[in-house]
Amino acid sequence: MIFYIADMHFGHENVLRFDDRPFSGIDQMDETLVQNWNARVADDDTVYVLGDAFWKNEENSVKILQQLKGHKHLIQGNHDRVKGKLRLYWESIVQYAEINDENRLVILSHYPMLFYKSQHHGAAMLYGHVHNSREWQLVEKWKREQWALGIPCKLINVGCMLDYMHYTPRTLTELLTAEAMPDMDLFARIEESTAQYESAKTQVYELCKQAVDEVLAGRLTDEAQIDWLLDRVIDFGDDARFRELSKQLCRHIYYHYPKLIGDFPSMFRALFLSLIHI
User: Fold this and answer.
1) DSSP run (H or E) holding 73
2) Could you tell me which of 246, 249, 253 has the C-alpha nearest to residue 276?
3) The 46-49 sheet, strands edge to edge
4) pTM (two decimals)
5) Would you say the C-alpha torsion 60, 62, 66, 68 has a positive or negative sign?
6) How do residues 47-61 score in pLDDT, each as one tens digit?
7) Distance CA 129, CA 152 (A)
8) Domain 2-182, CATH 3.60.21.10 — does that match?
């Protein structure tokens, strides 16, 4: 099984304040990170750490790496000073990687990449670096805008301090579920429903127009039916075709059924003032 995590910052006291981490000190934080890691990861599992694993102290970093289960790969971040013995405990150390996980291309980088390989073909882009900061919110805002445009964007922050990470390595399935990515089928269904609505509205217009023609020709005189027709016209008053029907109806029945028309024109104006002039 493959797991992902970033920005653990073992031994980095300032990160407690920077991320508002819920620990009394770095010893408790380091201990919790090790416990959570080993509770999820087996010896034959693989873990990709997407940068900023440790903070300066090589001796302490080696001691912690010796405790962590699994095959460990480092996607190097700006705080990773990997040298000496420390290099021996990583199976790979790179700036960027592309792997296949759960039949999906996964792009790995410490830094978020707004445009990444195979984005339109289901690839996921995992990153760290921005923690839970304003920069992360900007990335999330950009991602939502991409989805609104119908562009798939599986850009996921795996910083350990985020709620869905909870200082624990996560699988790709867990990350995709936690991120609650919009389903592209949803947009297709909205588009399909909109087309169906427009088609149905056109059918309603044709029927209403036929009824209005009957009123104008004097063949439909039942006041209850005319009153009902007025209500249907106002239901679709944001459509220019129905507004034209309302003009024809109001002008005709104003002289033939003055009590019936009542305050209909003023009500119509109040609802659609910026669109019509009856």
Assistant:
1) strand 71-75
2) 246
3) 2-5, 46-49, 71-75, 92-94
4) 0.65
5) positive
6) 999 999 987 777 888
7) 22
8) yes
Upper half-sphere CA count for residue 193 (Cβ side, 13 Å): 6
Write out pLDDT tens, residues 85-118. 788 889 999 999 999 998 999 999 999 999 999 9
The token pair at 120 is 């339109």
CB 81 within 8 A of CB 56: yes
Q: Are 175 and 126 in contact (CB under 8 A)?
A: yes
Q: Using one digit for the tens of pLDDT, what is the confidence trace for 235-263?
A: 777 788 988 888 888 888 778 877 776 65
Q: Are 150 and 180 in contact (CB under 8 A)?
A: no
Read off φ and ψ for residue 6, nearest 5 degrees: -150, 160
The packing angle between helices 264-271 and 223-235, to 10°, is 10
Domain boundaries, the chain: 2-182, 187-271
The backbone region for 68, taken as left when phi is positive above 0, alpha when psi lies in -120 to 50, beta otherwise, is: beta
Contact 97, 75 (CB under 8 A): yes
